[in-house]
TrEMBL record:
Highest taxon of the lineage: Bacteria
Sequence similarity: Belongs to the EamA transporter family.
Protein name stated in the entry: DMT family transporter
Keyword Protein biosynthesis: no
Pfam families: EamA
Keywords: Membrane, Signal, Transmembrane, Transmembrane helix
Regions that span the bilayer: 35-52, 64-83, 89-109, 121-139, 145-165, 177-202, 208-226, 238-258, 264-281
Segments forming domain EamA: 7-135, 147-281
């Protein structure tokens, strides 16, 4: 394994870890932030997709296009729930609950008749126990925080659908072609949501626009793109395990940069979630 890939993976984890604190610190409506993040990403990808992948885009089957559109819809739903949750509950709680995506993926595969190893079930139970503790802590402190937890959980479910559909599309489509159609779909749907809800899309300060650009670069390109780059050499198990560090990383950045210190009981709950997800990933790797 090239050493450079481990460095790239560390940069990817750093990129996604900055996502939640940047969103929290950006003085713009949550869904509008999500729209501009995907709009900018689509704009950057457009020259590459339309010049180098035009033939592939034209040759996409109807099924592939529909899967890309569905993945974009799930991604829009993910953003529409997760970003507002960061304004309602702590960064640590929201990020931890949103990263339980492997639990929903495991449940979906079981419903499809796939065999689930015992180690995966043990990890799922551990992570779910952490979820219960986390939501219990927030319920005891603030019902608004509990609503934020519910949104974060829903965002994790939507992300699971996005990943499952994306993995199916990637069997036949390149990364650029898939992400271009997916991000464009997400941007359009979020634009509709912003207009329907009356969220302001302009009139922000210069520092707010800078944070939106930094968010797009850190999370969308640095985080996601580098993860996709190194997964071929390091393997999905190692990459997905490393990405779990987003939760403690985001919590630490939020505490140092924003002074956001959640209740002490949140930390062991987050620890349970991370341990459970780590066991799930190891169980899936053995399978």
């Amino acid at each position: 394994m090239p050493r450079i890939d481990f460095l790239l993976l560390a940069l990817a984890v750093s990129g996604v870890a900055f996502s939640a604190p940047l969103i929290t610190a950006t003085a713009a409506p949550a869904v509008a932030i999500a729209f501009w993040r995907n709009c900018i990403a689509t704009g950057v990808l457009s020259p590459i997709a339309l010049l180098r992948h035009r033939a592939e885009l034209r040759a996409m089957s109807r099924r592939t296009v529909l899967l890309c559109l569905a993945a974009g819809a799930f991604l829009a739903l993910h953003f529409a729930m997760w970003l507002p949750s960061l304004r309602m509950t702590s960064i640590a709680s929201s990020t931890a609950l949103c990263t339980v995506t492997p639990l929903w993926t495991t449940l979906y595969l079981r419903l499809r008749g796939h065999h689930i190893p015992r180690m995966v079930w043990i990890g799922s139970a551990t992570a779910f126990a952490g979820v219960l503790v986390l939501t219990g802590v927030d319920f005891s402190t603030d019902t608004r925080a509990l609503a934020g937890d519910a949104l974060a959980l829903g965002a994790g479910m939507a992300a699971s659908g996005y990943f499952l559909l994306g993995s199916e599309v990637r069997r036949t489509a390149s990364t650029i072609a898939y992400t271009y159609v997916c991000y464009a779909t997400t941007a359009v749907l979020l634009l509709v949501a912003c207009v329907a809800s009356g969220q302001a899309l302009t009139g922000y300060s210069g520092s707010t626009w800078l944070k939106i650009v930094l968010l797009t670069g850190a999370a969308q390109f640095l985080g996601h793109s580098l993860s996709n780059r190194v997964v071929r050499t390091l393997g999905p198990s190692l990459v997905s395990t490393a990405i779990l560090m987003e939760t403690p990383g985001a919590a630490l950045i939020g505490a140092v940069w924003l002074g956001q210190m959640p209740p002490v009981a949140v930390y062991p709950a987050v620890g349970l979630v991370l341990i459970g997800l780590l066991v799930v990933i190891r169980g899936q790797r053995r399978t």
